[in-house]
Batch of 2 targets.
Target 1
Amino acid sequence: MLYEEQYWLPEHYGEDRVTLMMVDPENLYAYWEMTGKPAGRPFVRLFEIKERYGKEVPDLRAQVEVAQRGNYYFHNTSADSKYFAEAGWMTDAGFIMVARSNVLSTPRLEPTAAVRRPAAAAMHHVPLPSSPAEHVWTGR
Amino acid sequence: MNKGYLAIVLHAHLPYVRHPEHERSLEERWFLEAMTESYIPLLKMFSSLLADGVDFGVTMSLSPTLLSMMKDPFLQDRYARHLEQLVELAAREVERTKDQPQINRLARMYLEMFEGVERTFAAECKRDITGALGQLFESGRVELATTAATHAYLPLVDPDGPGVRAQVRQGVRYFEECFGVRPRGFWLPECGYVEGLEKVLADEGIQYFILEHHGLTLGAPYPRAGTFNPVRTPAGVYAFGRDQETAKQVWSATEGYPGDYDYRDFYRDIGFDLDDSYIRPYVHGDLRVHTGIKYHRITGPHDYKELYDPDRAVMRAREHADNFVFNRRHQIGYWSARLPNPPLIVAPYDAELFGHWWFEGPWFLDLVFRKIDRERDTVETTTLSRYLEAYPDCEEVEPSGSSWGYKGYNEVWLNGTNDWVYPHLHQAARRMVRLVRSHAGAPDYVKRALTQAARELVLAQASDWPFIMHSGTQVGYAHQRFVKHMGRFLRLTAMIETGAVDSAFVDAAGAHDNIFPSLDVSIFS
């Protein structure tokens, strides 16, 4: 019985939801689903959380017209920053949010400042007696 | 007098592959080949170091999927049959090549090697490889560590957390089930670290994990010792950083030791070279595959290959071991006066590199351990726990998101080839948690369905499926496995939700995907 199983995974799960994931600090990925009848043009917006006057303030970094369900890669994001995404409907009266994502922190790309950095790694590598091979094995 | 330490870490993992529905399975060969070429040779190497009284320390992380396969009687039977065939093929090769002395010598080498592996597996270990690993662990020289239950790539498995917690909890529990003690170390699959992960590890009693180099050096504040001393994370768990120089010397495809022209060529195998009528019983039906018998050396960056000469290869391995130790002494000599604690070089590698990809790898390791013990000059090998016991006072540093994958972050596991898996995985983890909470007092037949759903979910979470989809080889298999586990999960959870549990289906799925027999769904609470 089990071996004749055939599965088709659902294209959506009937939840209003947007999820933000990190490819690397400069590229993020969002996927979303909006249920219900369209109330405007579907949009996904990316916010960076900035600190202003000691308060966290969302700063709109990108907004793209999308489909009601789908995914999108945001490029040129910043390291060491916090982001979240919203999915919703763009109307003449403004943006109606349907779902807000998790908050994602991108890691640093540079060492933290104002610390004593050690000297560059010791370079004592002694060349091998044989010339290096061009062989490529399929290790990770 | 010793001034510093070298901690070699071997990470052993294979995805859970078990196909009783097929007479032969191409993907099961991953396990069969790695057993013969890496796991058993490494086991024998460590045992011989112990028997010879060599003072050494090494850390080995074993994925619960791999341990499960090693303990599975069905796979043990298949492995025993595979070894019989391999010995038979090597014996036929000795006969076939009797008039070609150079090749004949190699055929004899393989025959001897396979017979030795068979002896270790059947006679010495009585098929119980995990038991033999446990004995090494008890010696204190080989520290065993765990990893995520099915080697899920933790930075992506679940942004909400329950999937990550379940993977960590089951990784810890299964280790305890196998070896009778809780693991101290936790290998982050693919060195994948995301902010906050250390708290989950701390909750499960883990004492240390390993970060890719920049996971530590981009931490806050900047670790003054770079990767040469471990740090303590705010959650109290220690983090070690991967050393770049030892990584490059062994991993680099262009400069690394394994690419030396005198070493055995991996790709040239009699499975592809010999006549169909002769080799057919030992390959995969119509499909030519690696048999493990390879007579050529890398020779150069071209298709022309010369015959392999084991004497030359051993000499080369000795040179490489000398070079490796020489460079460690210089690293340690440089750093020892500059650090609060003695320098520690953490050198993690995939265990399958040694023996499977790099045939001479186990010889190399053996030579490194023996040389360091014999000369007792500047460097000593150690396990990660032993180092922490001696030097528990560390700087406090918050690590930075990172992995050892291409470009150092998540791209390998999140790109256009595999991004489609995540909505399913994330939704499933939420659903699992909901069902575990709402079915605490459910009758046994419902609980069995719930437990099987948990098995299907953790199997779907394996990092291997998105990795294979990205790497482009055997993509169909990874796709099929992911859809199958997720499909079974959805079917089982739908049964539980509607109250119409089909126990025959639960049993059939359980017989097939039988990983973690004592799995407790509370890992998802």
Target 2
Amino acid sequence: MSGLPDEWARLGELIPSERLFVDAANLASFESDGLTAYRERPRAVVVPETAAEVIAVVRWCAEAKVPFVARGSGTSLSGGSMPVKEGIVIALNRMTRIVEVDPLDRVAVVEPGVVNIEVSKAADQYGLYFAPDPSSQTICTIGGNVAFNSGGAHCLKYGMTSNHVLGIKAVLATGEVVEFGGRSREQVGPDFAGLFCGSEGLFGVALEVTLRLLPKPECYHTVLAGYGSQEDAGNVVAAVIESGLLPGALEIMDALAVEAAEAAVGCGYPAGAAAVLIVELEGPREKVAAEREKLDGILAETNAFGMRVAQDGEERMAIWRGRKSAFSAVGRLSPDFIVQDGVVPRTRLGEALRRIGEMAAEAGLRVANVFHAGDGNLHPLILYDGQKAGALEHAEELAGRILKMCVAMGGSITGEHGVGMEKREYLPEMFSAKDIEVMKRIRAAFDPDELANPGKMFPGKEAPALSLRGLHPLEEAGVISRE
Amino acid sequence: MRVEPSNPEEVAEAVRSHGRVVAVGGRTKRGLGHWEGATVIEMGGVSGITEYQSSEYTFTALAGTRASEVEAVLAEKGQYLPFDPLWVEAGATLGGTVAAGMSGPGRFRYGGLRDFLLGVEFVDGEGSLVRSGGRVVKNAAGFDLPKFLVGSLGSFGVLTEVTFKVFPKAVETATLRVGCADAGMAVERIVALASGRLEVEAIEYEAGAVWVRIGAPGKALEELCGEVEGLWPGEAERLNESEGGGFWRSLREMEWARGEDCLVKVPVTPSRVVGLEEAMGGCVRHYGVGAAVGWLAFGRGELSRVDEVLKAEGLSGLLMGGGGRRWLGRRREDVITGAVKRALDPEGRFPGV
């Protein structure tokens, strides 16, 4: 193979040449993921079609000591699927078989390249669905969801990806093929499937994932309301939680995010709102009717304006469209932006937002806020112009201050995007040297040679080159969004 | 030998100063924690809720805290542990519940213990206190050791502190008993309820009937119960409040299994129930969590037969009351389990996996 060292010849025997890329043009499209500020060109990209091919490639990597990065659609916002310079990318986009959907056991067994939304589509005929719904769910893959324990707008009630993964068949970085968990919602013995979820690709590559399916909620009650201040909106969230209601979603967007969404998709959110709140109840119609009464009572006591209740599925989607487009929409306000993903205790949301505002003012940067208010998961979007020297570093400095604030408040540096490459220097903010050392010992048990997705999660690795690119091409096209 | 630490540092000290240790909480699981010759670390003194803010839906407590204490404190704020810990009245501790991986009937609606455990502090095999996970309801930083330790039976470390997510509890609930002529009919009904629109809280099956718990406010509760009764007229009957409450309480204490030496927890799925029913005639049987778990109770003389049947069915069972033996049926054999064991417990201070 041209462009590759001689000892790599064996790789060419494992994967046919039309699915093994070594040329610059093909490699270029794998250089970056959803964290568009960084890029790295791998030595080669392989596109396996079967589990046997993935296993063969990983075993070759283990033998030849070649680092590898498994990749789905490349939507990671933490640089989780950023390639490694001396390594290969294992692109799983052709591992798209839905092996089975079983309405009796209420599980789906899928390959890692299956796109998130496709699982729900396949389960729809049985009245079932796959609950985790990251905003990129029309393009992100189950393999990536598993690796980074992706979230979405419905986590408070239903949890994250790992809460819906029952079993994982995987090839570990050592070449060992393992089966963790199974088909049952219950299990005995240490929870290896739970450990594999969110391991950020540092253990190996998932080959087949067994997912828990839930019955589709019979009906939704989705309310949109505008508020004169973020604090007012935050107080409503607190009141809803205190009331004993358990909404499926509780979301807030600030004025800047609303402005962007309005410009992008014309979502018709209340004009002049400093904050927009979305509350969604779901369940059997009788229960939703009772809960709706309670929610109406709470909202009636607030100074909400421009309140809108979705009357049907279409109106519900219209409300969500603005929210789900918010991140990419911010690209209209600024050539570049960083998406952050901190978590604070819910009761300190108001304080956190105020301090983010102060820090942004000090830094002279604009920050749009979109967040999962129900679980305290903030997504400050820091706007900057990557063409200006030092602008990215300046924005990253602010992002770092925000993350430190989240940890100081007792929260987390990441709610759903993962540490990846982006936040690895902040891991020690949350964990002691001892905690991290134990994680590294576990990593070494799975991957003694540090071949699987090296340079992610743990601090202290050399950063790849900075890129000056703005939006991801798919993002520009409105196909994906960051969250 | 026994040691009685009163805080996490003393637990760490106990691990450092003994060659082989096993942590014990409320002794509610028929000697599941027994390890011949090991120093017993009594966790009862490492107890107390250290943080609870109801509006955060989280609390943190030391591992020796009794589940009953937690449930009482949560109930004052109208909240509960949605996974329904077992053996609460018998004195189960949070640490023991996590290490044994025990969830009850309520697991059906929102998930099991693994889905509500947010963070842990534990002592590793080197005797150091280690933290993993977080204290907020959402967190994706670092490896998810809290989940890994669920069901790990103390093989990788001694839990000293746990943080859980909690939920508001339905103010009103109702219990229905649906008579079923055979296992096939029961499975059909379990699946209908589990896939349907009703969002019931719990579905259990034993001795010819499926038991259903529904939680909803007032009028909605009446309507939802009415629908279940209408689905299977004459076979579905609503229990009065004390009967219903008594059923779930006795179930969480596993009273039905009290007369037998051994108790086995077997992860299953609805499609396995009919086969198990045919093969396990000699055991007292109960299927929980919408037939996600099969419980078998039997006399010690039945051990090898149960083991054989589970092997033949390709199922694994966690054994309680087996006098030191922990596993029945199929065992997963891989290299990684031993490698992770050595990573966390290089000197073999804790029981084997």
